[in-house]
# Entry
Amino acid sequence: MEAVTLARWQFAITTVYHFFFVPLTLGLSVLVALMETIYVRSGNELYKQMAKFWGKLFLINFVMGVVTGIVQEFQFGMNWSEYSRFVGDIFGVPLAIEALLAFFLESTFLGIWTFGWDRLSKGLHALTIWLVALGSNLSALWILIANSFMQQPVGFIIRDGRAEMTDFSAVVLNPNIWVQFPHTVLAGFTTAAFFVLGISAYHLLRERHVDFFRRSFQMASIFGAFSIVMLIFNGHSQAQHIVKIQPMKMAAAEALWESEDPASFSILTIGDLAQRRDVFAIRIPRLLSLLAYNQLSGEVKGIYDLQAEYEQLYGPGDYIPPVAITYWSFRLMVGAGFAMLALALYALFLTMGEAINSQNRLLRAFLWAIPLPYIANTFGWLMTEIGRAPWVVYGVMRIEDAVSPTVSTGMVLASLILFTLIYGLLMFADIYLLVRFAKAGPEGETAETGPLVAKPARV
# Structure
């Protein structure tokens, strides 16, 4: 296996692993801030206990996210030195701002929030968790500004073989960021909502801290229903943006070999990748045009036409991304998203109608639904990055030109094995800590076993 392939595997493994923690950090920080704000406004101690309990789980997740994120930035210089040299002037600016401003804000006030419960006034203490939430989401914004340059490079010229920034505002206001950032933040909100729903369901099934977790379940159901609905609307806008700027990614995500007008949407396609053709397909006529242009007609370019177009534009080569991975990543992301929509709306319905008291089976479903947002996040990110192949910077730099020329295959393999083992241990530690503290329930809370909403059940 070549060094570039191993370097891609290493980056994929470390990125996917790191991205397990990011969405929960984005969403849970806001949810905890809302809980503490309700406590400040109402004086109800239950919401203070909720903020403390969910904030402790947030802290565990945050620490793991920081540890795994550091390795991400090291890899640019380690395995991708040519990429770093090429885009260093552009890529370095948002990453530096993220580290110096957003991460500093997030980390500093998280420390103050953790140790300031008995030292700050209620209002000032609530302000610190809002600053943590602001810092977390600003951190994501600057990282996505950097990533958006890879998706839609703007505001630069190429001089002496390097990309040099000519317009900072163009880079910061990259059109891609307006669809990618809301999508990431809303995915984080949805992740946090299902995290809280699942753990709350676990305790409700056991008649433990019933009022505490029923309130948590109610808040998460509202937060989750709002987030997933907005996420799906935003996903529609993002798909339309992809059709404009990276039509090959959409063609691969739809296994659309030939251009169509009107274009059909694939429900299920079994293809022959060697021959690059369909073996079996179920498609809905006109639906892809409707999704792409909000009307029942409009051309969506197919893989063959785009390949010919790119050969004329960029020269000979294979410009088709891994079709099977892109296609199924898209469907797993969308499928998990709609499953979450159904569950979130049903949770909201139960909460509003107080029907949660007699829904044991549904509570168990929320516990098992905790992985759904992680599935959607992971495969959405895989589609975003793999669907851009063969480009590392779209239309400007290919993946094979970005790898470090002096790093041998053996060196990449050794670091790949090392990182995978370390990350495996970190994952084990993270799951152990989260499960332990989540099962323990709210610290200092009386083990009330009031009238249960559901009969005891084994999960």
The radius of gyration is 23 Å.
